[in-house]
Amino acid sequence: MKKESNIVKDAAILLIITLFSGMILGFVFQITKEPIALAQERAAKEAYSEVFPSASDFVLQEDFSPEALLADGGWQEAGYDGVSIENVLSALNQDGSLLGYVLTVTSHEGYGGDITFTMGIANDGTLNGISILSISETAGLGMKAEDVLKPQFAGKNVSLFTYTKTGAVSEDQIDAISGATITTKAVTNAVNGGLYFFQTQLGGDGNETK
Q1: pLDDT tens string 66-78
Q2: pTM to 2 decimals?
Q3: Could you tell me which residues are beta bridge partners of residue 122?
């Protein structure tokens, strides 16, 4: 009986500790939730401005559905099943006129996991540049995407990028990161996915914006 009593006592103590720990974690989460959300929002706005510095405002297209895009057969057939568009924003001038778009894009093909970045595309199809939001590639290799890949996309007006290991000789070629072909391919394909979305869904092919 004494042994059973001790077991019950230990179980009760463990339960109390678990409940108390849960309450503390919940309390900490509530305290940190808003600051974290604000920090993420601030980082996103900075990324929008980086890829579209001439815009005065960014308006989220609330009718865009990432899930619907991934279910689109055309998106899959175009080779972008490993790419998702997280959101779409209209980049506006001070007078409210449309300058282009900012897309948040995620590649699910990175060596170390997902790679998420924003990209700004002007109305004429010029890619202003990309701003990497999150990346978890191999230290010293894939993590060079910020320094090596990012600058190469800025100010280019091409319909599709390719990557090369022998040195870029044209506007549509990107120099691969030495020793990090998977990361290079993932970022390049995701940028191409964003351009494809602009061309087919946002009037980039000369049609009216949907």
Answers
A1: 999 888 889 999 9
A2: 0.78
A3: 100
